Amino acid sequence: MLRAPTPPDRHRPKRRWRAVIVAVVLNAALAPTAWAAQRVALIVSVSKYDKVPSLANPAKDAKLVQGTLQKLGFQVKVLADPNRIQLIEGLGEFEEMAKGSEAAVVYYAGHGAMIDGVNYLLPKDAISTNKSSLTGSSVESARLGQSLMGAKAVRLIILDACRNNPTATRSLGGNTRGLARETGPTSVQVVTLMAAGPGQVAQDGAGGAANSPFAIALTQGLTRPGITVGELPSYVQAEVERMTEGEQTPDLQGIWPNVHWSFDPNGPARQASAAPAADLTKIKWEKDQVFWQSIKDSDDPADFKAYMEAQDRGEITGSFRKLASNRMRALEKLPAGSFQVASRSATPGQELVVAARDAFARGDYRTAFRDWSTAAQQGNGAAMYNLGVMSLTGKGAPKDVGAAARWFRQSAEAGHSGGMVNWALCQLNGFGTAKDEGAGFQTLQRAADRGSATAMGMLAEAYLRGRGAPQDPRQAAGWLQKAVNAGDGPSIAQLGDLYEQGVGVPKDVRRAFTLYERAAVAGDTDAMVRLGYAYEDGEAVAKDDVQAATWYQRAAELGSAEGMSSLAVMLENGAGLPQDYGRAAEYYRKAAAAGDARGYLGLGSLTARGAGVRANPAEAVRLFQEAANRGSAAAMRNLGIMYEGGQGVPANRARAVEWYRKAAAAGDEGAQAELQRLGAR
Domains, the chain, ranges and CATH? Predict the structure, then answer.
């Protein structure tokens, strides 16, 4: 009897450390995305209550959201101050409207209550004298999800029911602050964006006529050119955190059927040759990565402002908006004598640097090289840095690692933090210069002492790995904390790793989780995956498979291969999600295309079994081989199974034993059992 290959298990690869920065800003305009015509929305606001305190903001916020959605082409149904019967009937009518639509959105603003882990929405005639009267006179929030199930591409609930104002709170129900995450059969298929995280309360506007920070960020995000449903939550979270100075973070739960769907009504594909939405999203994402890498070590707050403005124009996804805001504030607070924090116009050659970036974006490398060279002659460290990048990548200049190292050294000597970091990396690794870890460490130390957050984080790595200085986990943890305080994004999750493992600090999985959460909201995809693991494990936080899947998808849409394969595992196994072999195969395929061993392993397992894809044992063997080449012990065992059973390859007991031995040597316990069964050692 033939045996099925082993499906992939979740794994925790070691965090990848930083490498030399090799990017330059790209700002080319994007082609329009496809837009589905049928959009429906239900706006529910309850400000005036009969027997509970009334609220000032719901009506104002609902009007703002209503107008925004109408401008975006939504057919909007409005329920203002409905009683319980009107709310239930209105949801039923909207359920019919949503059937067959491309996108359906429900926005609720009013009192909410979390009782025994269930969220309730309070209509006008709600009674709150006790738990029974409150639950009996309210409507469970899960009813909103049921009304959206007929939509095909977008099913979105926007739950703005956890807010404080001077006279009352939108969140009622004993001593519990805020609402809980949505649960129930629709919690995966429907995405819920809450104004504040579980247990948090959301702020109202600063003045009597002002809208809430959440409503402002939401409507601004919805109207960003070309913004997709996958990009919206990150924008809203970053902006609300910025406006509330970190006191409020909107929460997301659920899986998008189509993360590339765009709210922009001006972005329909009117030409047959228009690029697919997924391709355009990938272009925006790639430009986002390039833009961020090119400025992340900048000394000029204007660079980070330019990054946010590029997102506002729809040119990039803006995955690092929160980090950009943090770095801008951190640079503005640096004392005199730190890195250059003056305005662009005050820095010699800076106008030429900006002009060169624009030329590079147009593909005019000759002009970019000329302008950067001129600025470099004027002593501009950023220009020297970009010339180093050109030499390193071969774009606009002959590819020459030695020349790149020389430019990075000159940039460092001119006081540019990015140049210092890259020159230190050249010294540490012997890129274009003699390897000298001690000198590289000293370069990082000088940069860190002058305020470079990136250098602080890299000093921590040097202490952890004993590069240029003796290994010292405590020093590493201390420098990571300094880097976090100075606004370095990658250091947040790296510090979380130390707390999770108890390296240099006392082991504290809850502290690690908090750091991962902070880094994930700021755009760190590794942290997003680690949050997913935490929600699956249930050690640092209550087990929540739906929230795990939510973070895996967010990481996947930002290009994380580990996020893609982690979500695929859940889809394949039906863990927290409806089992869906087709979507599992899709995510495994994307992960494999990004070089992920588990992607090859999972796709091979489905291909061998014919689950979600056409059965093809020979192709499965090829996929297992690719995974094995990348170190997957489970794939090695699967190759043993395929050779032993003659599936996709001629039966060959000797080859089977060989693969079982390799798998066992790589730590696969199942392979050891196979060897014992065959009587092999």
Answer: 1-31+275-435 (no CATH), 39-253 (3.40.50.1460), 560-678 (1.25.40.10)
